[in-house]
């Protein structure tokens, strides 16, 4: 992967989300600011799109990213916000929350995808498949994925019927079957069609 071509003299944050397509749990975003040295270090370490990494490698890289980043922050939007706003707007809200927590404030945000964040006062640039072209965005995808997976794993203990430890809230056959059998919880997204089967437990 080669870092997306941007001015290197300014503070640039990579921003990505995870959990947009899940049936259960919040949508989570991360924003990561990297120095030129840390970009080179993370490239050598194997940072790339989180979906192409094993859980163990993601965890190791997330630890390294957080240790050497200028700053790294998480933002999320709750299930209630997803149902109220819709998943796209909730995703953009989660990204904005991650960005505004950064210290120092970045001078440019590289946003994975093709949707700009509304009312963000910091300059931003969208990049389709940015997690494959920008180390900063890839780093954000890893940090967000590890953080959300750990959250869902904790929630799995409360809701063992849904196989959440394995599916991380996504709509696997086993998860969908459990919804048919047990109904939904307050962490299921009621605005998603397959969750509209019964009242929350």
TrEMBL record:
PROSITE patterns: RNASE_H_2
Annotated compartments: Cytoplasm
GO biological process: DNA replication, removal of RNA primer; mismatch repair
One Gene Ontology MF term: RNA binding
Cofactor(s) annotated in UniProt: Mn(2+); Mg(2+)
InterPro entries named in the record: RNase_HII, RNase_HII/HIII, RNase_HII/HIII_dom, RNaseH-like_sf, RNaseH_sf
Major place of residence: cytoplasm
Enzyme Commission code(s) on record: 3.1.26.4
Residues of the RNase H type-2 domain: 10-201
Residues given in the record as a divalent metal cation binding sites: 16-17, 112
Cofactor binding annotation: Manganese or magnesium. Binds 1 divalent metal ion per monomer in the absence of substrate. May bind a second metal ion after substrate binding.
Root EC class: hydrolase
Tree of life domain: Bacteria
Keywords annotated in UniProt: Cytoplasm, Endonuclease, Hydrolase, Manganese, Metal-binding, Nuclease
Catalytic reactions on record: Endonucleolytic cleavage to 5'-phosphomonoester
Family recorded in the similarity comment: Belongs to the RNase HII family.
HAMAP family on file: RNase_HII_B
Job description of the protein: Endonuclease that specifically degrades the RNA of RNA-DNA hybrids.
Record's protein name: Ribonuclease HII
């Amino acid at each position: 992967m080669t870092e997306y071509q941007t001015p290197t003299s300014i503070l640039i944050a990579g921003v990505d989300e995870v959990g947009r397509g899940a049936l259960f749990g919040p949508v989570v975003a991360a924003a990561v600011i990297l120095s030129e040295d840390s970009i080179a270090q993370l490239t050598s370490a194997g940072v790339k799109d989180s979906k192409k990494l094993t859980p163990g490698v993601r965890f190791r890289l997330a630890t390294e990213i957080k240790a050497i980043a200028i700053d790294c922050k998480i933002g999320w939007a709750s299930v209630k916000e997803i149902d109220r706003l819709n998943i796209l707007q909730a995703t953009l809200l989660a990204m904005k929350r991650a960005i505004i927590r950064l210290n120092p404030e970045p001078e440019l945000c590289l946003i994975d995808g093709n949707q700009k964040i509304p009312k963000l006062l910091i300059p931003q640039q969208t990049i389709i498949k940015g997690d494959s072209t920008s180390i900063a965005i890839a780093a954000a995808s890893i940090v967000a994925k590890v953080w959300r997976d750990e959250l869902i794993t904790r929630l799995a203990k409360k809701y063992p019927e849904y196989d959440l430890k394995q599916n991380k809230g996504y709509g696997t056959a086993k998860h969908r079957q459990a919804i048919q059998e047990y109904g939904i919880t307050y962490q299921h997204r009621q605005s998603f069609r397959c969750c509209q089967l019964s009242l929350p437990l």
